[in-house]
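Justification of resources, computational component.

The compute hours requested in this renewal are based largely on the per-chain cost of generating structure records like the one below. Each record pairs the submitted sequence with a full structure-token output. That output is archived, and it is also reused by downstream analysis tasks.
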Amino acid sequence: MIFTTGLDPANPSGNGTHTSSTAGDSFKFQFAGSSISVNGIQPWQTSGNMTVAFSVDDEPTTTQTFPRGNHVSYVTTTTNYAFFEDDSLSSGNHTLTVNIIEVNGNSSMIVDCLTYIPSFSTLASKPHFTNSGSSSTVLSTSTASSAAKLLFLLLFPLRTDQTIQRLL
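The structure output for this chain reads:
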């Protein structure tokens, strides 16, 4: 038996993404959970590389370089591309920090969604986070703005406690 979310896997969530091609751009995302992943669109047809740093709770940073232009010619983009995943977190409140370190050529980071397994049992018991006043953009599970609206989807067939947050 196959369960689906009703979302078109070829399109970004809500046909919306957040894109940057500027070194130094960053964002923080506060969440209460035990894992986090950053997914987006990988545009293979562009040239150059992009280096991005990912960190959870200021722990050692994971740095990834995403090469472009060296993929098979008939695949121009990959949707739901996993840029980062950390499934070894203790259950609780965390802050994910994403920082674009270097951009070569015409590369860009296209973020579609952040997914995490919550440490709370109901949306009513979800913690409320506040902006720490840092200079980077802070996305939290309790804020929504025109730049970052958050949509919660419960995927009961996958896991009854799994919440997916998508940036619109």
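Confidence is low (pLDDT under 50) at residues 138-168. The chain is about 0% helix and 50% strand.
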